[in-house]
């Protein structure tokens, strides 16, 4: 019900609106491939943790690298989608 109020009330809706080029908005637009990549990265990180348990710094590095790779994937997919629209405009 709170989400409906945020969408329905213009003042609240404008408060929570972000630009389309916001990294979190891009991550949301490409959520399925990013989710799949995150699942695969988590499985790879589990194997790495079995090989080398490390410590808190190692865990932090694995998590930060995984998040960075997910953002990179989302930005890459967004870039690819932009190439498709620019080629379609050139063909006209």
Keywords, please?
92 residues, 85% helix
What does this structure look like?
It is a single chain. The termini are far apart. This protein has 92 residues and is mainly α. 85% of the residues lie in helices and 0% in strands. The longest helix has 36 residues, at 56-91. The protein has one domain.
| Low-pLDDT sequence parts | none
What share of the residues lie within helices? Answer: over 70%
CA-CA gap between termini: 45 Å
- Which sheet architecture does the biggest sheet show? none
What is the fold's blueprint, element by element?
Elements: H1 2-8, H2 10-16, H3 23-29, H4 31-51, H5 56-91
Helix pairs in contact: 1-2, 3-5, 4-5
Give a nutshell description of this structure.
By secondary structure, this protein is an all-alpha fold. The chain has helices at residues 2-8, 10-16, 23-29, 31-51, 56-91.
